[in-house]
Amino acid sequence: MKVVALFVNFMFTAFAVKAQDISYNKNIVNELTSSTYWGRGYTNNGMKKAADYLAAAFEKNGLQPLQKNKYLQPFTYNANSFPGKMEVTINGKKLTPGVDFIVSPDCKGVDAKGTLEQVDSVTFVDKKNSIIVVQNDKLTWSAAQKVVPYTVIEINKKTFTETPTSIKANIENELIKNFEANNVAAFVKGTAQPDSFIFITAHYDHLGGMGSNTYFPGANDNASGVALLLSLSKYYAAHPQKYSIGFILFAGEEIGLLGSKYFTEHPLTPLKNIRFLINTDLAGTGDEGITVVNATEFPKEFAIMNNINNNNKYLSAIGARGKAANSDHYWFTEKGVPAFFFYTRGGIAAYHDVFDKAETLPLNEQADLQSLLIAFITDLQ
């Protein structure tokens, strides 16, 4: 009877944690995608505000900083930014930033008007003012560490169907030299082998703002992964493991995996002490399951994950992919640390655009992802 009672109590607790964490995850995504953090990028102090918020979340969840008395690991890099004017008029029609047009992340500012000459079916040039206009079916933005001596403006063919013949543009850019960013790192001390680590990682930065009135929320990319990570940090703070469980939230991912590169070059714990690293990005959907990068590099661990999923039916599918430099796991793998990177498949298609919002992100597999990862980490120890 005592065993039965313990089992019932365990199941009730697990259900309660699961239900609570879904609400918690949604609150995290809502917070990080709000205008307060302005896309967690390079204007309005958005990235620093996010780093401070996340450090406070680790502390509230009961985690220790990975370096003594400091959750933040500072580093710097150059970043092009767009803090002010973002005005484009084509054929006399004013376009809406993010919806009708974007600028190339490495473009210089410009304040000019001119005539556009057609170069090919989708490219138009104002040679006098070094402006290039390109028509695209989807506007996908990014971030850049440099500035080129011309201005590229991409316009949405679906919202602006005319042939561009004239342009007026007032765009302000600022190259920030030695932009100050921070990785945010914490851990739960292991009960038996505290010097050995399993890490869970995600990047928290996004693209920031394009002009003073438009920002990119970054709900799926990657407030979703941050939410999953913070939820797991709550769980492990309440359930310490044999190994220490470390958590790193990286900055500078969108501009070139810079935060994870810096961490591997200046590790806060010896890299040889990391048993395994699990990186999560784009964790907000999952209708079609997940894809695991490095699955072919670490077939034993991939088989463990698949066996857990097959037995518990958490996700509809777990797809295998080889080595790829497409997220923050990469630099760890290059340094000899075994690592997986997983991302969800199916659902909404918003990515690096102004439509990647909290209100349209389902987070429908976050609870199952958490259960899968907890079981996987248990089997790794």
From TrEMBL:
Pfam families given for it?
Peptidase_M28
InterPro entries assigned to the protein according to its UniProt record, in alphabetical order? M28_fam, Peptidase_M28
Please indicate if the UniProt record lists Signal as a keyword: yes
This protein's UniProt keywords: Signal
Record's keyword annotation contains Signal: yes
Q: Which residues form the Peptidase M28 domain?
A: 183-376
Q: Where is the signal peptide?
A: 1-19
| Identification of the protein by name | M28 family metallopeptidase
Q: Which organism is it from?
A: Ferruginibacter yonginensis
